[in-house]
Amino acid sequence: MRTVNAEETKLPNELLNTIADGELVLITQKGNPVAILSPVSITQSAVQDSQTVPLEPQRRLGTATGMFTMSDDFNEPLDDFTVYQKPYFA
Q1: In Å, how far are 5, 25, 32 from 45, measured between CA atoms?
Q2: Element of type H or E holding 34
């Protein structure tokens, strides 16, 4: 973790005091959230309370390409259901 002196951050004292009082501050860049400033007490307790959750690997498309084939008449109606295709009122 990188440690930076308060003077290096160029944050106003008012903002630092707000954070020290326990308020979280969301930092955005071009409207997108990029960071949260929080007091050390909240951050430490959150880190201690969190549990490591293993990430599931991302699914990749196309991994089964060529492993199976589909017949040309896949969408054709089955012979068992030809009764239902005839109109009742003809």
Answers
A1: 22, 17, 26
A2: strand 32-37
Q: How far apart are CA 12 and CA 70, in angstroms?
A: 66
User: How would you write the pLDDT of the chain (90 residues) with one tens digit per residue?
Assistant: 677 788 888 888 888 888 888 888 888 988 888 888 888 877 666 666 655 556 677 788 888 888 888 888 888 877 777 676 666 665
Place of tokens 């084939």: 69
pTM (global) more than 0.70? no
Place of tokens 């007490």: 41
> E-strand spans in the chain?
25-29, 32-37
The whole-angstrom separation of Cα 1 and Cα 62 is 39
**CA separation for the pair 55, 53 (Å, rounded):** 6
Which of the 8 DSSP states describes residue 74?
T
